[in-house]
Amino acid sequence: MIRTGVQQMARGLCQIMGREISKGNFNTNIRQQMTPRGTFQLPWSSINSVRTMAVLPWPFSFQPRDFSLPNLSWGSDMRRLYEHYNSQCEVETDDGEKKWGVWRRLPSYNRSLKYATGTGRVSFTWMECVCTKRHALTTYCGVYLSKIIQSKARLFTRNIREQGAAFEYVVFVNKQEQKCVCVFQAGHLLEGPPGHVHGGAIATMIDTVTGTHATYLSGPVMTANLNINYRSPIPLGSTVLLTCSLDKKEGRKTFVSCQVTNTDSSKLHTEATGLFLSITMGDLLGG
Amino acid sequence: MIRTGVQQMARGLCQIMGREISKGNFNTNIRQQMTPRGTFQLPWSSINSVRTMAVLPWPFSFQPRDFSLPNLSWGSDMRRLYEHYNSQCEVETDDGEKKWGVWRRLPSYNRSLKYATGTGRVSFTWMECVCTKRHALTTYCGVYLSKIIQSKARLFTRNIREQGAAFEYVVFVNKQEQKCVCVFQAGHLLEGPPGHVHGGAIATMIDTVTGTHATYLSGPVMTANLNINYRSPIPLGSTVLLTCSLDKKEGRKTFVSCQVTNTDSSKLHTEATGLFLSITMGDLLGG
């Protein structure tokens, strides 16, 4: 069963590398499969600079759940902030046409690797990895490899099915201002001190969002350092805002800072800096 | 239903404060309920200095699962290291008597708050919180409070039921050398980079273990700072060793450092420092 799956993948990989990619269809396939159903769609030709999730094209079908979309567990704060940023993801021109705004919502998936009746379904998230065309094949190889290593693996922040029980979050990026925000609602399974969010869960969100921001700006990265100052505990069940900005880039290094505040930014809960190193798959495999 | 539970607790609290504690039975109750079934038991009168988990006494029964005990998901490395440290938790004297060794295994619970047929069952873990007699009542109030706030809350590191799927770990402390070790097996639900552990999951274990060590040495604390350097990715499914030591204590501050290595300590995966502040429940409530 496993061997059959691996053979399927190997065949798919060869076909993709030999046929799909050489014909320039790789990104077309990604585009077609990436478009969230029922959401606003812009012509992809106009957003060549937009970095998109890397996903497996044919022979795998692709219908993952986008965890960054609202669900019934979201409270009023979470919904309000989502609407606030989401409404700035598209704007209407004087001619009545719609185009991208300054903000962009990043879709968010778990890493599901399932086989059913011989048809593979694959989605992939690597630190909410967004990647450019030039990184797509590299990332594809990462998917291929990790599929062999751990077929049951799931992204840490999306490993609990019950809506609202753990990490509910959505990330928006603003390339123009090199900023990134994340609206985060902390569920009851994230407890540390009684009634409050575990320091590790806060660190997890900081790593996720600063890493996403660094990846968005610099391509695939790995976390090299996180320095986190916990100022004030976060009550369990509450919604907070993570705001990230680029500090500087030096060669392979990307420096990002992050603040975790309440929803109106009047109270600072946590602040952190993150250092990220640009990597290739070789770095990861040799780690 | 909730009100009934709260009334039960309030009555229990008054009775405990007015009757049980005044009669000096509080710790006796804890002792009786804390003893893991089927494990080696020492006379508690001989270990007054030993810090124990704070749990709710009467009217609540107490039979929580200790997550730090071996289960079928543990691999050979995890079992071997567990046995290595566990065998040093008790020693035999020349007279053939058994007494505590230099290491001590800390039990580990999730935070379960359940009501069934009118009988409350309560266990409590706060950053693997271990506390002295003088902190027992304070901690009890924390349990009482958090029960009202979030009846479904669970400790972040123990929130997944499937054995081996997420955090499998056991903490041993050595008061004599002011050291602490944690054997940690990373399950498939902790993925970050493909096939490797999420940086947030590593941060979570570092926060948990350094926090436990600080609490063991200084009483209840909150994390003030974590500074984490990620040196080498940790493969998913592998077992690693977290070794913590006390750097210094200054007033309310406790400084702890931590290294995450492979099982024979030949490869450094992560290193970190943690600063912890001693707190009262008032600090937490006012936060």
How would the blueprint of this fold be written?
2 copies of one chain form a homodimer.
Chain A: H1 2-20, H2 26-34, H3 76-86, E1 90-92, E2 98-100, E3 104-106, E4 113-116, E5 119-122, H4 133-149, E6 167-174, E7 179-186, H5 199-218, E8 221-230, E9 239-250, E10 253-262, E11 268-278, H6 281-286
Antiparallel strand pairs in A: 1-2, 3-6, 4-5, 6-7, 7-9, 8-11, 9-10, 10-11
Number of strands of chain A: 11
Principal-axes geometry of chain A comes out as: globular
Structural class of chain A: alpha+beta
Q: Specify which chain pair forms the largest interface.
A: A-B, 56 and 54 residues
Series of secondary-structure elements of chain A, N-terminal to C-terminal: HHHEEEEEHEEHEEEEH
Oligomer description: homodimer
- Count helical runs of chain A: 6
Largest sheet of chain A: 7 strands, antiparallel
Strand content of chain A: 25-35%
Detail the poorly predicted runs of chain A.
Answer: 1-61, 112-144
Question: Which percent bin holds the helix content of chain A?
Answer: 25-40%
Strand order of the largest sheet of chain A: 3-6-7-9-10-11-8
Question: How far apart, in Å, are the first and last alpha carbons of chain A?
Answer: 30 Å
**Mean pLDDT metric of chain A:** 74
C-alpha-based Rg of chain A, rounded: 19 Å
